[in-house]
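About this split. The held-out portion is used to measure sequence recovery: a designer receives only the structure tokens and must propose an amino acid at every position. Recovery is the fraction of positions where the proposal matches the reference. Here is one held-out target exactly as it appears in the evaluation file.
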């Protein structure tokens, strides 16, 4: 019985020393936990400071109206570049789909050519979905319908080529005329 009591006391002392060591580790890492907790607030504050200092710097160099005008022109130029790039991407993907259609027409291995056409159409559809804001609602429905028509295996190749020609005439695929940004 005394042996059991001694073992219990030894286990109690070991557990207390382990708890003391854990408390020391927690106290040592308290600073780390505090820093991790305030990191999102620091990131939000620094991004707000960056935006505010840029805006204030622009306002100091010019009066507020011309600063807004310059900002809107910069934004317009950036949007123009993005829109131009997205139109070019969609045109290139449409050309890729047209090449896959031509290969389907003349290829001996129809299943491989059909797979390549489906891949090209899938890539085109993903790009069109990504840049959906370039289309009016009616254009979006027509483009989606034409891509779905081209992906159907039951539709003859001539109809698919007509769908490609229709897509090439859609406003979002036609390149914008060259525009020189105002300085």
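Reference sequence for scoring:
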């Amino acid at each position: 019985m005394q042996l059991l009591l001694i073992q219990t006391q030894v286990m109690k002392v070991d557990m207390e020393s382990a708890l003391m060591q854990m408390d020391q580790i927690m106290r040592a890492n308290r600073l780390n936990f505090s820093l991790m907790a305030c990191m999102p607030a620091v990131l939000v504050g620094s991004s707000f400071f960056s935006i505010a200092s840029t805006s204030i710097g622009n306002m100091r160099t010019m009066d507020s109206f011309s600063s807004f005008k310059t900002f809107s022109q910069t934004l317009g130029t950036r949007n123009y570049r993005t829109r131009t790039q997205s139109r070019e991407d969609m045109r290139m993907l449409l050309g890729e789909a047209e090449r896959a259609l031509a290969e389907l027409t003349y290829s001996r291995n129809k299943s491989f050519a059909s797979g390549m056409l489906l891949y090209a159409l899938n890539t085109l559809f993903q790009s069109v979905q990504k840049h959906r804001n370039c289309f009016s609602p009616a254009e979006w429905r027509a483009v989606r319908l034409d891509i779905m028509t081209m992906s159907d295996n039951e539709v003859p190749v001539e109809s698919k080529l007509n769908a490609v020609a229709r897509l090439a005439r859609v406003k979002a695929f036609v390149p914008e005329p060259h525009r020189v940004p105002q300085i």
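Annotator remark: The helical segments are 2-28, 30-61, 64-106, 110-130, 137-151, 157-169.
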